[in-house]
Write a structure and sequence with these properties.
The protein is α/β, with parallel strands linked by helices. The protein folds into 2 domains: 143 residues, Aspartate Aminotransferase, domain 1 (Alpha-Beta Complex), CATH 3.90.1150.10; 247 residues, Aspartate Aminotransferase, domain 2. The chain has a 7-stranded mixed β-sheet, sandwiched between helices. Strands 1-2-3-13 form a 4-stranded mixed β-sheet. A hairpin with a 2-residue loop joins β1 and β2. The chain binds 4'-deoxy-4'-aminopyridoxal-5'-phosphate. Keywords: Aminotransferase, Pyridoxal phosphate, Transferase.
């Protein structure tokens, strides 16, 4: 009997997207996905910045198998010593062990709290900032996306997302990403500023060095924590392991997820011992999770981190991003902006963009748009993509634009 899988998808999977791609993928490897219909797709979005080391990287698979042979979940977070978790926390701290000209007043980040997702990292960081500063107000940016739960949604900078869910958390103010004049709104009442160095869902917004330095300075002056949301920009995506490395500053709290898991779900909020200790002295348990830092996800994450460093994926993505920029020159493309392999190609209009994305998929190249920017094409391939594969993808995009 023939069963229409597409119909089951629409009948029983809760739909929240107006245009679900509804591709059925049988297998994914490296930069390619293979449909159940046998069609091959070049992945230029990495599951939204997740598959940075490529799909099913052999070293990630080996680490997964090795961990599965030992144990899966044991007990709620932080009770047992789980060696992959400990090794991962050390490896993350090592990536953050450097001096900065514009440091955090609380010293280096060497303490990691693992979560299951980026959203949970945001939620944990908000609680941490409240507890540490004794303040309740937060600043975030217009058109920022930090997650869909109540706290993270409250930080969202898109009214369309928040409107139907009020009342949300009070005391949150949006400022314009990159606009130094708005830094005045960060005051001695601000618990924390939460910001993506390079705005992701706003359509890849790259600020100036001066703006980020001024932001760091302002936070230090008024005693607000600077929380960098590197959920999308971290793990090599923008040309350095963390995007903030390119801005000569050091955050007070750092958030990670997405690419961190090498394809498995994991996230983290990280800070110095001093800041993080407020959870311990709460006096009750300051924050709890059952699955955060799951040993299997931790194993995959450690392997992904090591592959990223060993293969110099961050540094190599700079030239790869430049290659995209040099190939995507067309009257219908206004600009290609971004750093490393976090790119946005701005088109004339939403109609041109939608048509281009649909036609590219029909020709076996997967691109996408952004939550809060509907005229730009998302280009965020696995960092392992080769020059040849970049040329292949851009050739298809250019062919489609010519039609
Ligand atoms: N922060 C940023 C910058 C993100 O891009 C996202 C996801 N798009 C999140 C937080 C939320 O992460 P998750 O979907 O893993 O909860």
């Amino acid at each position: 009997m023939h069963i229409s899988h597409r119909q089951h998808f629409f009948d029983h999977i809760a739909q929240t997207s107006d245009f679900p791609l509804a591709l059925e993928i049988e297998k994914a490897e490296g930069v390619y996905m293979y449909g159940t219909d046998g069609k091959r797709y070049l992945d230029l979005i990495s599951g939204i910045g997740v598959s940075n080391v490529g799909h099913r990287h052999p070293e990630v698979l080996a680490a997964l198998h090795q961990q599965l042979d030992k144990h899966m979940h044991l007990l709620v977070y932080g009770e047992f010593i789980q060696s992959t978790q400990v090794q991962l926390a050390k490896a993350l701290a090592d990536t953050l062990n450097f001096e900065s000209e514009n440091p955090s007043p609380f010293g280096k980040i060497d303490n990691v709290y693992f979560t299951n997702s980026g959203t949970e990292a945001v939620e944990g960081a908000m609680k941490l900032a409240k507890r540490f500063t004794g303040r309740t107000e937060f600043i975030s940016c217009y058109n920022a996306y930090h997650g869909s739960t109540q706290g993270a949604l409250s930080l969202s900078g898109a009214e369309s997302f928040k409107r139907n869910f009020r009342p949300l958390l009070p005391g949150i103010r949006n400022i314009e990403h990159g606009n130094s004049a708005d830094l005045q709104f960060i005051t001695s009442k601000t618990a924390a500023v939460i910001i993506e160095i390079i705005g992701g869902e706003s359509g890849v917004r790259v600020p100036t060095l001066d703006y980020i330095k001024a932001l760091r300075k302002r936070c230090t002056e008024v005693g607000a924590l600077l929380i960098l949301d590197e959920v999308q920009t971290g793990f090599g995506r923008t040309g350095s392991f963390w995007a903030f490395e390119q801005y000569d500053i050091y955050p007070d709290v750092l958030l990670s997820a997405k690419g961190m898991g090498g394809g498995m779900p994991i996230g983290a909020f990280m800070s110095s011992q001093e800041v993080m200790s407020v959870f311990k002295n709460n006096p009750v348990l300051g924050h709890i999770t059952t699955f955060g830092g799951h040993p299997v996800s931790s194993a995959a994450s450690l392997a992904a981190l090591q592959v990223t460093l060993k293969e110099n994926l961050a540094q190599k993505s700079v030239a790869k991003g430049d290659l995209f920029k040099s190939l995507l020159v067309h009257p219908k493309i206004k600009e290609v902006r971004g750093k490393g392999l976090m790119l946005a190609a701005e088109m004339d209009s939403f109609e041109v963009l939608k048509q281009t994305i649909d036609s590219c998929i029909a020709k076996g190249v997967i691109t996408d748009w952004f939550l809060f920017c509907d005229n730009s094409m998302r280009l965020a391939p696995p960092l392992i993509i080769t020059e040849e594969q970049i040329r292949e993808g851009c050739r298809v995009i250019m062919e489609v634009l010519e039609q």
